[in-house]
Amino acid sequence: VQLQASGGGLVQAGASLRPSCAATGRTFSYYNMGWFRQAPGREREFVAAIHWSGDNMVYADSVKGRSTISRGNARNTVYLQMNSLKPEDTAVYYCAADLYLRDLSSSGYRYWGQGTQVTVSS
């Protein structure tokens, strides 16, 4: 089982990015998937998550209204559309997946990807 995150980059404040996470190794149609981030010197924090059904999305207050999490048609890919990026959004973004997790904002996901760097300059 592997989660491959990509789509990070270096952008200016106010720009948009759309990191993606591709899951391989098994069918992830019924897995809840989430995004977390970790900035230098800080603990990893929750960003957004989506229920396997696609009917429930959860966002951290820090990104609510600026970000949208979604699943691809094949359901093995999850996207994080981030708009109006701020310097404080700079971090390594990790995707995660879990079959049974009830609290989508917790860090108890079973599978984790390697992360993609997002850097926002002021």
Largest sheet report: 7 strands, mixed
N- and C-termini, Cα separation: 37 Å
Percentage of helical residues?
under 10%
Counting copies of identical and different chains, the oligomeric state is single chain
**Which whole number gives the mean pLDDT?**
94
* Cα Rg: 13 Å
| Shape by Cα distribution | globular
Number of beta strands: 11
Low-pLDDT residue intervals, each spanning 5 or more residues: none
Helix/strand-derived class? mainly beta
Percent strand equals over 45%
The run of helices and strands is: EEEEEEEEEEE
Number of helices: 0
Sequence-ordered SSE layout with sheet pairings:
Elements: E1 2-6, E2 9-12, E3 20-24, E4 32-38, E5 45-50, E6 57-59, E7 67-71, E8 77-82, E9 91-98, E10 111-112, E11 116-121
Parallel strand pairs: 2-11
Antiparallel strand pairs: 1-3, 3-8, 4-5, 4-9, 5-6, 7-8, 9-10, 9-11
Summary, kept brief:
This protein has strands at about 1-5, 10, 20-25, 30-40, 45-50, 55-60, 65-70, 75-80, 90-100, 110, 115-120. The chain is mainly beta and about 120 residues long.
Give an overview in words:
- The protein has no helices and 11 strands.
- The chain has 122 residues and is mostly beta strands.
- The strands form 2 sheets. Strands 2, 4, 5, 6, 9, 10 and 11 form a 7-stranded mixed β-sheet that branches.
- A hairpin with a 6-residue loop joins strand 5 and strand 6.
- It is globular and about 40 Å long.
- It starts with a strand and ends with a strand.
